[in-house]
Amino acid sequence: MQKTTYLKELSISATQKKGGANSNKKDVMKIQSWLALFAMSNPNAGTTTDVDGDFGQATEKSVMNYQKAKGLTQNGVVDKPTFDLLSEPMKNAFEGNINGASLRQLVVNTAINHLKNHPFELNVKGQSNMGPWVRAYMEGHEGTSWFWCMGFVQGIIDQAASLQEKNFKTLMPLTFSCDTVGTIGLQKGLLSRFTAVRNNPSLVKPGDIFLLQKTPNDWIHTGIIISIGNGVFETIEGNTNDGGSNNGNAVLKRVRNFMQSKLDVFSIEPLV
To answer: Are strands 263-266 and 218-228 parallel, antiparallel or unpaired?
Structure first.
């Protein structure tokens, strides 16, 4: 894989606890982030607290609540086994067993596997687009200005291609920009405009990438197409929400009407 920043999110330097001699702000913020992410899928667990790097009473109680939810000893201490369990969703997403007879199947199944592990962003100190998942997809970058939909898409393509010992950068450069990928698609003859897609949906195959067009040379959102139906794409996309925003907070499976929306499509066929 070319994008391996996720590995930094899967470890802490030492056991962290309230008043611990080895406690450090960076590791504590990782722990607080994973506790908050656990709460998004388990809202009754009581594991959300401020992501501020301070392992105080609130964080200790949040850890104990997590340990209770997981059937662990409730001591409020985060050692390596506890942190491994906290960050297990990301490990499963990036390192889980993915099957597929073709690259297209691998792309779809990789996207589905990430979806199952509930990638969310966090809001930290007034900044959106924060947290372990965003950093993993965005090569360590995070913050309000770092829209992460293309980072997610390229993470999926990279992971799937690596399973066939292929380099996704032969298809497109590593970028976080929808405009860059759209422009490359035009230059390489890989981008089908939405009008062509509407006239001939057979141009599109599972594993291809949609680019939501604002103007002919300005694209504002992207995602993986996992199936093509009667006038619609089923997609898996990052940095979206239930309203289809291009700056939401999660990876979601969506249905998009390509007869109404301006969805250009970038073909991954050269990589296949």
So the answer is: unpaired
Output the six-digit token pair for 46: 């009581």
pTM above 0.70, yes or no: yes
Token pair, residue 209, equals 């990438």
pLDDT tens by residue, 20-42? 999 899 999 999 999 999 999 99
Q: What residue spans define the domains of the chain? A: 5-86, 97-271
Instruction: Say if residues 247 and 239 touch (Cβ distance below 8 Å).
Output: yes
Fold for 5-86, please state it.
Muramoyl-pentapeptide Carboxypeptidase; domain 1 (1.10.101)
Q: Which residue carries 């990036």 as its tokens?
A: 94
List own/partner pairs for 212-218 with CB under 8 A and 24 or more apart: 212/178, 212/246, 212/261, 212/262, 212/263, 212/264, 213/182, 213/262, 213/263, 213/264, 214/262, 217/179, 217/182, 217/183, 218/179
